[in-house]
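Reviewers asked in the last cycle whether our approach scales beyond single polypeptides. To address this, we selected a multi-component target totalling 412 residues and predicted its structure end to end. The input consisted of the following lines:
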Amino acid sequence: MPDLRYGIVGGGFISEFQLRALASVRGIEVAALTSRSRPERLAAHARAAGLGDAVIYDSVEAMAHHVDVVCLFGPNFARIDHMEQLAAAVHGGAELRGVICEKPLARNLPEARRVLELAREVGAPTAYFENQIHMKMLQNAKAQLAGVIAAMGPLTLARSGEEHAGPHNAWFWDPTQQGGGVLSDMGCHCLAVGWYLLTPPDKPPRFLEPVSVSADVALLKWGQPRYRDELLERHGVDYAATPAEDFATGMVTYRNPDTDQRVKAQFTVSWMYDKQGLRLLVDGLGPGYALEANTLRSPLEVFVGDAAAASVANAELALEKATASQGLLAVQPNEPDLYGYTDENVDARDAFVAGRSALLDFEYGYEIVRLTMAAYLSAERGAVVDLTDPATLAALDEYVPLIQQGRGAETL
Ligand SMILES: NC(=O)c1ccc[n+]([C@@H]2O[C@H](COP(=O)([O-])OP(=O)(O)OC[C@H]3O[C@@H](n4cnc5c(N)ncnc54)[C@H](O)[C@@H]3O)[C@@H](O)[C@H]2O)c1
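The resulting structure, written as structure tokens, was:
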């Protein structure tokens, strides 16, 4: 198989995770990197792992001339700038075989439309990286249940949760930079998982039509004075002035266009989950069958007693966002594979080599932004948002949530 040369934008958390995933994927070479500050450590890691030359460039535009695929793994607020640089590179002669964008595609629909417009200018196939759809446990569950679903009827209820104790970098906490709080950051995962799980196995990811969204958002932990002070000290973000939600839950109703059947997906996300670390919890119920997955369950348990705890260097060796390094620890030996990062790269590789977009393309990412915005609107209005109403859809097109505007104090 010919190698695809990746050029990675952003030298932070997700880029490092993706490099770990790429160690298990054939046919992809990490040819180049670019980031705001030179990603020397990441480049050294890529070279040491034999992933590629990992040449560092000063800009996205410069890098695009030396790679086949550009991976937008920078912060949410930089998406449009990075896409504009890609479009400029293509106008200047760069030839790309694919563009990958991490979740979320954008912070709101006006920005997402601009990303789509620029993607059309770039003209290459796209991949929207929603890793959780690619998780082996979800793919296996759907494959295992395909016969049962055909015989008994589709899943009628999906529940998806993602929770941890809070993000690792200041810009995630700043709603104006990130796009909101945990609903913007992690709601996009759960909205995608619910939609995908309910979709009959032989249908494409956007087959089911979103009908309505209801949601509730709240600031349950990080708005309390003690934790607000901690946030200000640790990240320089002031939740007294510009708060964001640390908890969100809601329900999306979908319609099957072939049968008119209504099915529902419930989502729950939080940044106040003070337990072992990141937990993805998914279940699905159909007539006469069910599935359930919980990433905190591992065949491997490690126990570190008080006497031994001083020698533990890094809690996150056990699990992403781990908050404890002693006691009974849940340890996941291959998190990039567990969370779907490995398989989303395999899917993108196969698609780009064949000259087409991945299972989830930028248009799919756009629909996830729409669902996220509908959830914010529902929480702001305290009402169910009807996605079949043209006036509501028009309002969503221009909508920027109060929290994202830095006016969260008016609504939380
Ligand atoms: N799929 C997932 O589960 C998952 C997990 C984490 C992050 N993400 C997504 O990945 C993206 C990056 O998140 P992260 O956790 O790596 O953030 P991060 O803060 O750890 O890293 C961001 C990197 O981008 C660089 N950067 C900042 N501004 C830049 C600019 N204008 N141009 C180029 N580089 C710039 C920073 O120096 C840093 O190296 C976000 O969109 C986030 O939503 C996805």
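Residues 133-298+368-410 form a domain with the Dihydrodipicolinate Reductase; domain 2 fold (CATH 3.30.360.10). We regard this as preliminary and will revisit it once experimental data from Aim 1 are available.
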